[in-house]
Amino acid sequence: xxxxxxxxxxxxxxxxxxxxxxxxxxxxxxxLSHNPNARVAxxxxxxxxxxxxxxxxxxxxxxxFNAIDxxxxxxxxxxxxxxxxxxxxxxxxxNFIHAQSDDIALGVDRNGAGDQGIMFGYATDECSFCDYMxxxxxxxxxxxxxxxxKRKAGYIQGLEPDAKSQIxxxxxxxxxxxxxxxxxSTQHHPDLSQETVKEMVRQSVLEVLPSGxxxxxxHFYVNPTGRFVIGGPTGDTGLxxxxxxxxxxxxxxxxxxxxxSGKDPTKVDRSAAYMLRYxxxxxxxxxxxxKCLIQISYAIGIARPLAIYVNTFGTGILPDSxxxxxxxxxxxxxxxxxxxxxxxxxxIYTPTAAYGHFGREPTENGSFSWEKLDxxxxxxxxxx
Length: 384
Fold this sequence. Notes:
The protein has about 375 residues and is an alpha+beta fold.
């Protein structure tokens, strides 16, 4: 299709599921700060003024466990929850984290994959400033990110942490040309009028969208139910890993079987998905294709991937099968190789918990290393 509508959604860091992703990743970073080789798989549930932690870890001593409570509270405080129904100071925390199964650890200790599974990476040049991401998801993330930044900085008053966005873009010749429909729902103080909320949202929308992209006002919905006062875990239970499409490509590309948050980088659900995004982005940014999708598969305890698939949608400078063969044979796609290349054994994961794991700026401390464009020259040599 050359002309079509496509929709993606995002949720804010204060959404109940994203709170849980944040807590799981904050505890992962805590673990890796104690031991870069720690094994971690932590799940979180959040409901009315209660957080429940579960999962397994290894390579950690009592100092890690003693710091869990404070880490959870400070993360909730940073998100902005000091409401009656969910308050960082008095939220009840139940901790059921335990030691990792020796059977699982056995395969990982041989540098094999921590589990079987399939992972995907994707990149597209459909939008010149969307960092090789699908434009609807890029805009949906950044609208909510802008609102959160203004809320935390005190530039807007009366908005609360829980929010969702959904944007439908109109495409012509496979390029986004404008917004067809935009929805933003944001939790707010009961005294704030919906007209005021809409104007607050509109300012962030206009800052994020390109000039002329905004839809007609009758297609711009803010709190379409008319009220959003009760939100966060007070109004809805949250779980780690329930927003995997928000985390990846907004439905524009497939997602593998697993979530990311709370998992250390020996888990290929996370690390291999990062590596494939890295490869796909460098392929597109290097001009080797306009769009690239890569799939990989692993078996538990086995280091080398079982198979790799590449689809450049007819835009590649080489046949897809040739690109796949080169990547499979010439790039170290073992779990250990991925962790080493992207420097993943570090406490870098908290920023990934909201507004997407991809299409983000690499940071000085190593977060989003998979977004770097430092593999283009290597690909040029490989593709000659």
